[in-house]
Amino acid sequence: MFASVQAPEISGMDVIMVRVEADASEGLPSMYMVGDLNHQVKEAQDRIRSALKNYGISLPPRRLTINLAPASIRKAGTRFDLPIAAAVLAAIGRIPPECLKDTMLAGELGLDGSIARVSGVLPSVLKAEQVGIKKCIVPRENEEEGRRALEFCREKSDLRVIGIGSLGEFLAWCRGTLQEYKPPASNKHRSEKEEPDIDFSEVKGQYAAKRAAVLAAAGFHNLLLCGPPGVGKSMIARRIPTILPALTPDEWLEIMKVYSIAGILGDEDQQIRQRPFRAPHHTASPQSLSGGGKYPSPGEISLAHRGVLFLDEFPEFSRRALEVLRQPLEDRKITISRVHGTYEFPACLMLIGAMNPCPCGYYPDMNRCRCRPGDIARYQSRLSAPILDRIDLFAEVESVSYEELQGKSENTGTSQEMRRLVERAAAMQKERYRDEKIRFNSELGPSQTDRYCTMDREGSSLLREIFEKLDLSARAYYRVLRVARTAADLEGSEIIRAEHISEAVSYRRIQ
Ligand SMILES: [Zn+2]
């Protein structure tokens, strides 16, 4: 007998529907699997045999052929275990073939018949809806993720997501006797409005650095924080997600897709409430940043999509790791080439780097700095020009005075106050760029900068004066204008004035 069912294959960020076919015919008892499969898919037959045995089902002495179509696509991973088992069960007459009609299955089988979570369930359910599938059977651990996808389906969609924990439950579902599973009433559904437990009010003083954070958040500019050790550079960076504009539903979906495909959506610490903040260590390999493996999945750069990628000890990252950053910073996506194809992952992120001014950390305080001049230059030159060119804002973080630590100084801003400014600038950019492909000032190309960065007379003559005096390059000129555009947006001004130009210049790289 012949049976077939649909299953998702993930290729980069895309989902391709694969038809899993099984045929049982007369012949020598055997199981053949075809359809361009990698070793993980081929190993499925051993897991299936043993899982079935645990439910008292042994394969009949028939010739079983399993085909995964289309054959032109390489299939990888363990998510085909459950669909293959289901197709086999239907082909040998243990379940009615109607059960598999308009159904998508995904799940990894354990030898005991348990079903383990797989990656990419959220985009798989979305794809299933597109192609008219009516039922998605997914591992119980992925059930909530699958249901979340339903929120993004058409209103009239009659797609159902069913979570199962074992092959036994699958058999029960086919017989129509599966008990509805009630998740334990844990603190799973924490309030959506839960405030983050960190706040910019904890950063005392640091007026200039906090202002740079507001500028960065408002225009999605890349930012480099420079200062001696222990002054709060990473404290500032970690609080930037608390002032970024609220996620739009589309952005939320984009982020969830990335996390789903990386297989970490739904982990306790990966509840997506606000924009991501990723902080890989400086020993991170280039592959862990870009997304490694034979069949790559998203790396740190893509996990920071629509949020912040924080690189502490920025110059300590290996040259190759920094090199990996170049393309995504320019293209806002990352492309990985492998034997089986080219994969693309989104990477629209804000890079925040933190560095000491010199190897010991105390330059230019010559009373404390013990570095030789050559060491300082070498240390700073580890950041190559192409990377530095993508950083719009350079801010110095200074030592905090005793009064500031005691909280006796003026309040330099809470996250809520800072975010209010950011939201205003975000609204102005949304309106201004409604017909453009860009969303933030940091994305302005040269011709767009000319079009959208209108200066008044004083602003224009100040920029000319600075340009000539400091001998700015064309790149630096556009960088200053982009940041000035954000400074004006924070004030709700369409016209860039002299004070916006001078503020932008103050966050310029000093070199
Ligand atoms: Zn030093």
Q: Summed up, what is this model?
A:
The protein has 511 residues and is of the alpha/beta class. It is built from 20 helices and 16 strands.
Describe the structure in your own words.
The structure is a single chain. Helices cover 37% and strands 16% of the residues. It is of the alpha/beta class and 511 residues long. It has 3 domains: 2-175, Ribosomal Protein S5, domain 2 (2-Layer Sandwich); 200-438, Rossmann fold, CATH 3.40.50; 444-511, Orthogonal Bundle (Helicase, Ruva Protein, domain 3). Strands 11-12-15-10-16 form a 5-stranded parallel beta sheet. A 4-stranded mixed beta sheet has the order 1-2-4-3. A 3-stranded parallel beta sheet has the order 5-8-9, with helices on both faces. Helix 2 crosses helix 3 (81-91), helix 4 packs across helix 5 and helix 19 (474-490) crosses helix 20 (498-506). Mean pLDDT is 90; it is low at 188-193. It binds zinc ion (ZN).
Rg (CA only)? 28 Å
What percent of the residues sit in helical stretches (DSSP H or I)? 25-40%
Strand order of the largest sheet: 11-12-15-10-16
Under CATH, the topology of the largest domain can be stated as Rossmann fold
CATH architecture of the largest domain: 3-Layer(aba) Sandwich
Globally, the shape reads: elongated
- Give me the secondary-structure category: alpha/beta
The overall number of domains is: 3
CATH hierarchy class name of the largest domain: Alpha Beta
CATH homologous superfamily label of the largest domain: P-loop containing nucleotide triphosphate hydrolases
How far apart are the first and last residues' alpha carbons, in Å?
Answer: 75 Å
Largest sheet, strands/sense/barrel: 5 strands, parallel
Q: Please provide the count of β strands.
A: 16
Overall mean pLDDT stands at: 90
Q: Helix count, per DSSP?
A: 20
| Low-confidence runs of at least 5 consecutive residues | 188-193
Which strand-content bin applies to the residues?
A: 15-25%
